[in-house]
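Model: You mentioned two targets. I'll fold them one after the other.
Researcher: Yes, keep them separate.
Model: Target one:
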Amino acid sequence: MPGITAVLGPTNTGKTHYAIERMLAHRTGVIGLPLRLLAREVYDRIVSLRGPNVVALVTGEERIVPERAQYWVATVEAMPEGIGADFVAIDEIQLCADPERGHVFTDRLLHMRGLHETLFMGSDTMRGAIAALVPKVQFLRRERFSTLTYAGSKKISRMPGRSAIVGFSVDNLYAIAELMRRQKGGVAVVMGALSPRTRNAQVELYQNGDVDYLVATDAIGMGLNLDVTHVAFSALTKFDGRRMRRLAPNELGQIAGRAGRYMQDGSFGVTGEAQELEPEVVEAITSHSFTPLKKLNWRNSDLTFGSVDALIASLEEVISDEWLTRAREADDQLALKDLATDPVIRARASDGKSVKLLWDVCRVPDFRGISQQEHASLLSGLFTDLHEHGKVREDWFARQVKRIDRVDGDIDTLSKRLAYIRTWTYVAQRKGWLADDAHWRGETRAVEDRLSDALHAALTQRFVDRRTSVLLRRLKQKESLVAQVNEKGEVTVEDQFVGRLEGFRFKQDAASSPEEAKAMRQASVQALAPEFHLRADRFYNAPDTELDFTEQGGLMWGEHAVGKLVKGDDVLRPRVQAFVDDEAGTDVTDKVTRRLQHFIDRKVAALFEPMLAMQKDEALTGLPRGFAFRLVEALGVVPRGAVAGEVKDLDQDARGMLRKHGVRFGQFTIFLPLMLKPAPTRLRLVLWSLFNGLDEFPEAPPAGLVTIPVIEGIDDEVYTLSGYRKAGARAIRIDMLERLADQLRAKDSRAGFEANPDMLSITGMTLEQFADLMQGLGYKAERGERAKEKPVADTQVAETPVAETPETPDAETPVEGTSEVEAVPEADPEPVIEPGAEGASEVEATPEAASEPEAEVFYTFTWGGLNRGNAGRGQRQGGGPRREGGKPGHGGQNKGPRKGGPKGKGGPGGGKDQGAKTFSARPPKKEKAIDPDNPFAQALMGLRDKK
């Protein structure tokens, strides 16, 4: 008498493992499992123990049967009958009460037996039913290896690691998975509709630690062995195919029992919109005490195939057993009734063989789930082919398979194709339905594998942040992380892009959640520690040519900001603040700070060398030293009007000592020409802005511009520091202004004069613009028109009487020539001005008009009597060169001041020390020049005038 044993108990009691051991103790055996996924898992385990040559796998869509098969692993519906196996086992036997599939499990419980041993594994709720329906059965109670506790409600954002969140609809499942990806870095997805290949790939993501969370349907409650420590229900109701209903406590317990494996304790709870479980439900789950099953679903398995009506009648047969109740109509029974209404189908199914064929066709599962009518139409076509030709038309079958064999599309599209191919895989597995069934079994399996891989990839791409999962796994395993930084500064950790290293600050790539950002930061900084030190060494040894400062006080290494300037105790001694991440350590920060301080100190010393040399000259004492201090304080450029008193007090020797350091005493500005170059000007503005605490630093004008527009709201001192002086609507570069002043001295400003081409050339302006400039300098400009004269060949200025100018004893007499720092070469003596253009000078060459003389505009300039020092004082100046004055009278252009001349003639006043001073435009005479700064200059010039 073969032994029958019911091994009952909660989950995590090792029942399935026990059944495998018992089966392998026999020569042959069959084990029926509730899911295709679980069947594949058990098949793989047995193959690893006994090899593939003796193990068969039979499911609705898969059939692997070696010639010498001894052990058969199958879904309960596909269990082979009549093979006379020594051992038979049915897992999850409590599914006898399932509304859809229960009748199949009940049939196996009543009729499936092994020659020597039979096992039924499942919940203890089946004890009474099994005892009543299976004579002489023995019961074996197995206790749970670990404790299961209730953890209450948890937010998804606070879900502990190694958790499974359970949902009961695809839409809900995807929504949870998307939320978990954003907040936790990624999830694996497990559904009963997945192919074994996709499911295994997803489970592997979870099992190997690539992701720490699992989102699943109640499929995980059917024996899938996963490393889960917590199960959270996102819903407590499900659609069972007919209606929405709440899950019974024993169903919740079956799923919650997946938490905790072997000796590891587990917990369960709710999340999302799911309500807290009632205390009595919690108690039932934790104590594994559920209401015993009173009724099992049953359907007659002794069918009659004489006619379609007889078959339907046998399926609808009732039973009077108190433990059994007739199951509701399943999909195959509904399909049979639909096809029976078709007169053609009914006419074809006229004998027992054809009725049996019709029933086999009706049992093709509706994997597609489109509609009952479309499924019935598919079955009608299959039955027609099989009845007429004995086979399914291969060309038609091939078209159906080819239409599905595509791996493009999103998750839903791939899932639908996978469901479709399962239908054709099932057809291919039916023996004798296709002419070359072996070929099509392989073909449909290959298509399913391709779709499975594509679906796995799509699920992973959508619900898994591979980068975060890799980093989390490495951190948990406490492995050393390998970071790499390429030439673009891109940082990868374990081949995953995590951000960019910009200088000594790590700019992390955008993260989808705070947890992800924290994991990325932790992994990246840990791996970048050695890179920070290597980069600091390279930076410390880098030449100054690789470093620079910005006009806003930033400090750059190449294209990356590595620090900024901060205010120091002295304007010429700024301090630096390095941009270094805290994680790099104090050693790196100190090294970067020292290198930046060295750079800016050397930059100040190099660009301000003339000024610093003057400051350190111990030979300068008294008034010269005081004036040098004022000039250093002004960073090398100061309006003459602001220091008129100090200039007046300087004797010739004092001025000579300052000139040795390059100081230029201009008519409008006192400056160091070398300090007007673009680089010192740029640094001067930065240091001044920094020392004065400006939030936004003014930027230096582009190099080489003679004039720039005047912008409202810009402080006059900014123009001075930039090397320009405001004059009307534009500001003129101070060195070019001094050259212009040289020419203005030769003009009679009382009687009035007109601009010559040299003046326009110096400024680069039209006549109208020049007139505005002159008014900004204190002149009056009277506009007039006249007939245009034919140009003369010789534009040499005729010898004119000595023009008198206001006395300026402190202004140096410039000489012809330019300094070595001049940035813009002088224009040609006769600049080309477009004929007829407004503002054309009186000397421009234009063709003679054919009839009436052409009118031209001219301006007559006279001194306006404004104080030179106050007109535009402190306005912006440019960094270009100016004509440097040498010894008075050099070249014979300037005769020096004339004592007693009339005031008001000549150029603008000399600020606070304004006085009468005139300059002659006569051809030079070869005689010793008189230094206007000499205290006896006035007397000497007076004596000379009497000759």
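Model: Target two:
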Amino acid sequence: MAQSILGQNLNAINADGSITPVDGEMGRFDEPGHAALAIGEYHRATQQSRFGDYDLVDLVARTVTAQAFIEEEAENGLAYSALGLLAFGPSKERNPVWERLLEPTRETLDHRLLQRTDYDNHLQAFNIAKAVTRFSMGLSKKDETGKLIDRFVERIKVNSSAGYCDDHPEGFGGCFDIYGVLSFVFIRQALQLHANIHLRDRKLPSLRTHAGKYIKMLPDIVRQDGLGWAYGRGIGAYGQMHCISLILQAMRDGWIADEEKPKYFDILRRLFQFFFTTYLDHEHGFLVIRDGERTTADTHTTRMANFDAARYLCQWARLAKSIGGSMDAKPAPAKRSGRFVVFDKSHRKENGLFNYFDPESSLHVQIPLVSAGSECGESSSSLAFPHCPGIIDWPANKQIPILLPELTFGKEKVIPAFYGKNCTTGLGLRNSFFFRYDQPELVTVDERFLTGVGSCKVNWTFLGGKMTSEFIFTVKNQVQLDSMRYVIAIGAPHTRYRSGLTYTIGEGGLRPVVIKDDFQAVWGETEVVTDDPDYRSYWGNIHYLQHLVRDHPLIMRPGLKYRLVVEFEPDIAFADA
């Protein structure tokens, strides 16, 4: 598969090392670096320096050169190109790519690898890769890798009481998404190329402490049909690829106990099968992340994703060889569960992820209570509703209140997402699972506290295949609510790129029932958005929007509770059933 993807994309590398984007897309400044590392990983997996008529050493020399002279901020690309260079040899005396580089390129690359901004997010992983390359290539006698890893781990501890990566700690804070997984995968890949294996062995235990937390989350996150990480920024194909790499690296390093391996082999098989059937065009041999039925984050391009997929496939092939074993192992039967993973708990706010799974109905949801970070106000992917693609969908690049009330006070819009206090989960009546949290201060859609206006309590209850949401708003002083809206998006998996076991919604739909509505909202006409590119998800197309709206003012008075209670019992089917 990696050969097929490379065969479709190497021709996009121009004579100057720049990358030609696919039709209809704009390129990124870091794409040459992604191409360099993809080729480097292919070389590591095969030990080949040619690919058909292509000289791989020449292609990497060109892309590394192009990346070195890009003036715009591109830490990502520099780190990827550095590891792509290092993949051909651990020292400049025995590295064929280094020999091809002209002296001005060598000097510029050395200078840019030395330059680094101190980051407190996933970009710090790229600093680590740059330090690994400088020392291993002999460009510096001082190895800063250990110090940078220590700083990365220390900031995890500072920004998260539970030891997870907050990728946007400034401002509102609390952005706990798949970029934490990406950070550990990339750092581990960089350390594997480090010339000093003793440093690698010294730093792995501290990385394991935190990476292991994400590994333990995966059994609750990965759906029966294989869909992986389904909330936050940059998901879709990357929600599969990063998780697969994390598991394979953990197995190679012995981080997963023997008795746990059957479970993780099964998770790995499902993750890969979903990736293979959902994102790969088997006829032409390339990755499809954006077409007439689905889209992805604006920051991801088709060309970058294809090079990343080729890189990961080569990496998986190498890791699989070193791990050995059989994929036939079967885990214990799945059990009904409801668990809340605490990401951070402080006096100011709490963040976490609630996962619920019912094997009888196949209902499997993720409710993130996290910040949207750099996508603040631009996406629905981090909102606190039950994420279940194919059943409960949302647009990739547009924020709308999916299964959440959005209240408008003048110019301010508030939504019960992003943070909570007093987060609790447990068993309720008739063996139901509940997830509750308070918001002592209302928070706006762009993640600002609206101090002094009011508060909200949220209660989600799950019983079998039925889920009930309750939102209770109170105000501190009399205030005018200008409007309220609540949206249900009805979508479907991709008509071509999908597994037969992919979840989809049956003829019965979500079966929503409004139990109590103190806002006296009414259902509007169903809005058809099938042909609107703004309403495509990471997995398929959204066809209809159903709006529950109050479009005229309501005077909210202190001492009164304003409730919205909505119940759902989704009709869950399979795509090819």
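Researcher: Noted. Anything on target two?
Model: The chain has a mean pLDDT of 95.
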